[in-house]
Amino acid sequence: MSTSGKTAYHHGDLRAALLSAAMEMLEGGEPFSLRAVARRAGVSPTAPYRHFKDRDALESALAAEGFRDLLDGLGGGRGLPASLPDLAEFAVAYVAFALRRPALFRVMFGKPCDGADDERVKAADALHQLLADALDRVFPDADAEALASAGWGLAHGLACLYLDGKLRAASDEEVAGRVRGAFLALVSVGA
């Protein structure tokens, strides 16, 4: 800001613009730095530091956004699963999200949550709570924590196997069928 009467540059929602630019770069496969994100957003190179202390903080904010998007995709405005097949659709939606947004998925799960980052922790906790509530509804007498770990591990493992090219499928329907089948097979073994 100069003393000649000019007002300081003001961006309507700088944080949202930076996150949008970073998400575009991430999902487009472009390497990014705070400087590159600022350039993409059309702001000064120092502007990102108003919201993010470093690249890790920006990645953490992207991960929080990803957790919220995944939560929306799993919840989708519908109620909690009431049956085993409904629960299997959670696993299908989880894997579909990973395959649709692989770079974001890797950012979400590539590093441990930083307990000091409230936004990311809250977003991850909301996802875990949805899963726990769903499992408790379908299996009220089961060890919910153990079952949540098993279900999440299966869905996450399948997502990673597809992302890493260890499992291949000709279509989204084939992926969904394999995920659904694996989930139902695992759960029915214990029944």
TrEMBL record:
SUPFAM superfamilies: Homeodomain-like, Tetracyclin repressor-like, C-terminal domain. The keyword Transcription regulation applies. Keywords: DNA-binding, Transcription, Transcription regulation. Residues 33-52 bind DNA. InterPro entries: Homeodomain-like_sf, HTH-type_TetR-like_transc_reg, HTH_TetR, MT1864/Rv1816-like_C, Tet_transcr_reg_TetR-rel_C_sf. Residues 12-70 form the HTH tetR-type domain. GO terms for molecular function: DNA-binding transcription factor activity; transcription cis-regulatory region binding. Signal peptide: none annotated. It holds the Pfam family TetR_C_33. The keyword Ribonucleoprotein does not apply. PANTHER family: HTH-TYPE TRANSCRIPTIONAL REGULATOR RUTR (PTHR30055), TETR-FAMILY REGULATORY PROTEIN (PTHR30055:SF220). This is TetR family transcriptional regulator.
